[in-house]
Amino acid sequence: MFLLMLFLLMLFFFFLFILFNFNFDFFFFFFFYILVLFDLYLLMILLSYVLL
């Protein structure tokens, strides 16, 4: 379930990336920025579940 959500989110960002390919540099950095923030957020959630 969790991995499926992550996979769907990655596909969503990938399609956005293709959509905004004309503005490559900006969206490239934006994409990685959002992805890193989201991964950190998920990691914090997982760690909180493990610790609790």
SSE string, helices as H and strands as E: HH
Q: How many discrete structural domains?
A: 1
Measured by DSSP, the beta-strand proportion falls in under 5%
Described by strand count, sense and barrel closure, the largest sheet is: none
Helix fraction, binned, reads: over 70%
The total count of strands amounts to 0
CA-based shape: elongated
Average pLDDT rating: 75
Oligomer: single chain
N-to-C span: 20 Å
Task: Give the count of helical stretches.
Answer: 2
Transmembrane segments: 7-24, 30-51
Keywords: Membrane, Transmembrane, Transmembrane helix
Question: Helix and strand layout, with pairings?
Answer:
Elements: H1 2-19, H2 24-51
Please explain how this structure is put together:
- This protein starts with a helix and ends with a helix.
- The protein contains 2 helices and no strands.
- It has one domain (2-51).
- The protein is 88% helix and 0% strand.
- The protein is mostly helical and 52 residues long.
- The mean pLDDT is 75.
